[in-house]
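Question (not urgent): is this output format expected?
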Amino acid sequence: MENLHDHRQVYAKDTLLEQNAKENPMEQFRNWYLEAEENPAIAEANAMSVSTIEADGCPRTRMVLLKSFDWEGFVFYTNYDSRKGKAIAENSAVCLHFFWPGLERQVIIKAHLEKIAENLSDGY
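Got this back:
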């Protein structure tokens, strides 16, 4: 087995202090997302992992693309008949995770998903 102990990068670009964080977490996310979008080292700032709970109780994580966000929440699309769509229908509790290595920053969001309006989904 290969020893990976020495394969650690030191992350020291920035710190998040509570007194410097925005009171509204969506405002904080917006600011960080815009920074990530402008950073040339980050190819897809809207790439995020989505973790769902499968019918057997085990988590399953996959990558998706964030399509929009506003003060009410985050939007991504999935096929309702896919494994992910079925897992969400069974248990709407998910975890979203953004990792922006160029900024040495990550955002973790615990949420309950709901379908957007049918006309918006069909338009996609």
